[in-house]
Amino acid sequence: MTIVDAIGALGALLTTLCWLPQAVQIIRERDTRAISLIATGAFAAGMSLWLVYGIALVNWPLIASSAVELALMLVIVGMKLRLG
Fold first, then answer.
1. Which residues are CB-neighbours of 63 under 8 A, at least 6 positions away?
2. Most buried of 4, 16, 24, 47, CB within 10 angstroms?
3. What Å distances lie between residue 51 and 13, 20, 46, 74, CA to CA?
4. Angle, nearest 10°, between helix axes 20-29 and 60-83?
5. What pTM was computed for the model?
């Protein structure tokens, strides 16, 4: 692994994990009033495109981080649609 790969992996890890506390808080408190559906939906759509891009490149760090991040965003979007 090169330094560039390590930097990319660390960036992917941090951006993926940053959504975990938000998803946990929304699930626990059942409160989505402060979440923008449009922004969260757009972010989820963007993560879907990153996932497709990673699959096309067969880039496993990009695939894994995009898949986890997309899953967290879909939980948030789903809770927002369900709870308002």
1. 51, 54, 55
2. 47
3. 15, 18, 9, 14
4. 20
5. 0.83
| Domain ranges, residue 22 | 3-83
Angle at 12 between CA 78 and CA 28, to 5 degrees: 35
Domains contained in the chain, number: 1
- The answer to whether 74 touches 20, Cβ cutoff 8 Å, is no
pLDDT at 66: 94
CA angle 1, 43, 84 (to 5 degrees): 140
Give the tens place of pLDDT for each residue, 24-64: 999 999 999 999 999 999 999 999 999 999 999 999 888 99
